Amino acid sequence: MSILSSLQRTIVIPEKYRQMSREELEQRVLDAKEKWGSRLFIPAHHYQKDEVVQFADATGDSLQLAQISAANKDAEFIIFCGVHFMAETADILTTENQKVYLPDMRAGCSMADMADIHQTERAWEKLQEQFGDTILPLTYVNSTAAIKAFVGEHGGATVTSSNAEKMVKWAFDQKERILFLPDQHLGRNTAFTLGVPLDEMAVWNPITNTLEYDGDYSKIKVILWKGHCSVHENFTVQNVIDTRTQYPNMKIIVHPECSREVVELADMAGSTNYILKAIESAEPGSEWAIGTEMNLVNRIIQNHPDKKIVSLNPNMCPCMTMNRIDLPHLVWCLDTIEESEHQLIKVEETIATKAILALEKMLNFA
Question: Is the pLDDT at 285 greater than 80, yes or no?
C-alpha cells in the first residue's frame, strides 16, 4: 500500500454527518441522485446494510458490480458500497473518465489482507525452488489488486465462487499444480469437488513462510494459501448438529468459503447467487438454514416470508468491514466528489495492467 493510501485511510468523517437525522441523510442522498442523474452510479454489494442498499442502482457480488459499473459509460462518479478490493476491481475495469470512490476507506476485507504481495513473492520463490515451473497461480477475486497483478504476471487467472470449478479445471490443463490465493476453504472445497483428494492438498503458511504438509511432496496437486473469510469460518460443525437437532426438516445451504467440514455436512453449497436462486425457487413452507453473511440472510428472510429461514449460526454478526459503509459515510462521499479525492480509489497503472490479464483470462474463459 502506498503512503498516500495509508494517509487516506486515517481521514475521519466530519462530525456533522454523525449528527444528521436518518431522514436528513436519506434526503441528501436523494438530492444528490437527482442532481447528478446518470453521471452518478451507486453499486452496493449483497452484504451491505439496508440503509445503504435502498439507494443502490445495482446490487450483486463484487465482480458483477465492477462489470456493471464499467458497462455504464454515462457514470462519471461510481460510489462503490462494498470493500476496498471491490472498488479496486471496479477502477481496473472502468475507463479513465470514470472515478471510483469508497465511502469509507477503512472498509477492507480481512481475507484479502491475509495475502499481501511481499508474502506472495516470498512464497512463490520458495515454491519454485521446491516444485519448479509446475505451478499456476489462481486468486479469488476477493484479493488485492497487487495479488491479481502477480497472478496475471505469472499466467494465472482470477476466480469467483460461481466459476471456481471451471477455472480450477482450466488451471490443471495448464500446469501440474495450482497455488490458490487467498481463501483456503474455497480452494479446498472446489478442488475436492473436482476429485482432488485432501491428502494431495498442502497449505502455505505466509507467517512462517513454510508449507504445511505431511507426506511426499511429489503428490501435492493443490497449494492452498492459509487465508479465510472471518465471517464464513464462524459457521461450525456444531452449528450444523444443533440445526439438525432443532429443525429436522430444515435444509442447510452454505457458501463455499465455509470450512470443508461444514460444506461436507450441508445439503447444498454455492455462491451468493446460487443461494439466492435456491431460496427463490424453493417451495413455499420450505425450511432453510443459511450459512452466509448476516445482512444478506436478514434480507432473504424479509423477502421470503412464505418460508422459514434462519442463520446457520444464530449468534452470527454482520461482516464488520462491510458494515463500515453507512448513510453518514455515503452522504459525506456524495457531498465531496467534486472537491476532494480522499475517498477516491486509484490503482497504479502498472498494477492494473497486470491485474487485468488475470481478470480477462477468467472473463474470456468462464
Answer: yes
